[in-house]
Amino acid sequence: MVPVMFLLLIQLIALLNGYGVEARIRRYKWEVKNEFKSPDCYRKMVITINGRTPGPTIRAQQNDTIIVEVTNSLFTENIAIHWHGIRQIGTPWFDGSEGITQCPILPGTTFKYQFVVDRPGTYVYHAHYGMQRDSGLYGSIIVGLPDGESEPFAYDYDRNIILNDWYHNSTTEQAVGLSKVPFQWIGEPQSLLIHGRGRFNCSSLSVPSSDPGLCNTTNPDCSPFRLIVVPGKTYRLRVSSLTSLSALSFQIEGHNLTVVEADGHYVEPFVVQNLFIYSGETYSVLVKADQDPTTNYWITSNIVSRPAPNTPPGQGVLVYYPNHPRRSPPTIPPAAPVWNDSRPRMAQSQAIKARRGYIHIPPAVSDRVIVFLNTQNEINGRRRWSVNNVSFTHPHTPYLIALKHNLTQAFDQNPPPDGYDFLNYDIYERHPNANTTSSNGIYRLNFNSTMDIILQNANTMNPKNSETHPWHLHGHDFWVLGYGEGKFDMFNDPNKYNLVNPIMKNTVPVHPFGWTALRFKADNPGAWSFHCHIESHFFMGMGVVFAEGIEKVGKLPSSIMGCGQTQGL
User: Fold this and answer.
1) Phi, psi at residue 134, to the nearest 5°?
2) Coil, strand or helix: which one is 121?
3) How far apart are CA 556 and CA 569, in angstroms?
4) Order of strands, sheet of 390-392, starting from the edge strand that comes earlier in the sequence
5) Residues 17-66 pLDDT 10s
6) Residues 387, 388, 394, 399, CA torsion sign
7) For the whole prediction, is pTM greater than 0.90?
8) Could you tell me where the DSSP H helices lie in 92-247?
9) How much is the pLDDT for 22?
10) What quaternary structure, including any partners, is listed in this protein's UniProt entry (predicted)?
11) Do you find a cis peptide bond into 470, omega within 30 degrees of 0?
């Protein structure tokens, strides 16, 4: 008994001195199923988690273990859930990318995700199978600091908001249109949602319905989002975007937004009236309730970077307590930014720097440079998106399993190109040869090497048109070294890189006819997707896969197998 009592005494002393406090285990049980909902007053089939969309918010502290048991109760669809921004260090098989890190979760089965949230910040989770994110399968992950530690900025209350766009067609209808000949584009969204709530103009239906419940503006599902604030208090708003297509501007009428966090990293604070946010990005902004407390104020989201005249703005209400929550602001909603003026969007991108005292200095030089030219092309008459004239296709056997078990027939062993014809390619013109090729080949990175990625935007198949693309990297954060207009100059532009205080992020836009330069360490063993976060663009081939340190990946759990050549392993 003496040794046992001695160990207990040591543990008690350690706890009293603040040492040896174990991280918590946070357990969740989710049922994913189809339900009819009316988030913008128009009823459609959506995907819910425990009856909700957005799904439950995961709240944890740094170094906690998250265990989520997901039961797929959809009738005919597989699912997979990606934990966006969580690097999955030591657990690459739980990244949640179907076809890359796992086989899908089949209807009627339960799958357990288990991973550590190693860094505080604002993150999200969402479907990563087909285009299911567009059906409502998404939510927030909020990771706080350990007890006793504090943020480098002060606030009184912490709230989170997810911004989204919303389509009335199902993801299956959208996918069929994108895959057919002739090409059928999904169009602009019918609504914008602020934390799952929007307002569609039911009178604009092209064919009036005899079903009075199909579009009903009195449905409580679509009552406006309301954020209640106490006068004089400061609020940390964690604003995330999980749009399917749209780049957004977010604003709160009459209130400044002080940006303090981006994708889990502290930002040198700066003030904006409009927060430009792209799909997959997360920000924290500080808002002080310092305006006239006798009135309420508009919260709005608007589409930028695309013409969307028929998509109404997202609208919510900032309610000053004790005003009645249903009292509308006495003003009209603030005007939206000019949709095709890219200058303020570029200026905000360039303003985001790492906060003093929290700067992670990047390596001074890289070991390898890959330039990704983003183009729109065709394969046998089918419209595709391509990277260096290669359109990505998912294999039937997930890359992580194929690489670990040396299943060389599971995907193309030829790597895609590291660049394009820099000298002769005109990024401002529609390319005369629109044909491209498809491949499921991957980029193999030397473990622990330093990688530079240059995202180069170009003209689409429409004249004088270039689109904004938000690119998301799984399994890593990267340093954002710089942005530029026009064609990247490999001889001169690297001299302009910010190597002093670059922000680290996991999602970043490349602006129309512009370039974005990133740097990261290939130090997380696994197979990781890097792709445009616009659902239709990734579906149409705008992505790549990086593999690094596969020999260091531990034994793969059997739960991720069962598809393609993994059967029987």
Assistant:
1) -65, -15
2) strand
3) 10
4) 437-439, 390-392, 382-387, 368-379, 450-456, 514-521, 478-485, 504-505
5) 333 456 899 999 999 999 999 999 999 999 999 999 999 999 999 999 99
6) negative
7) yes
8) 171-179
9) 65
10) Dimer.
11) no
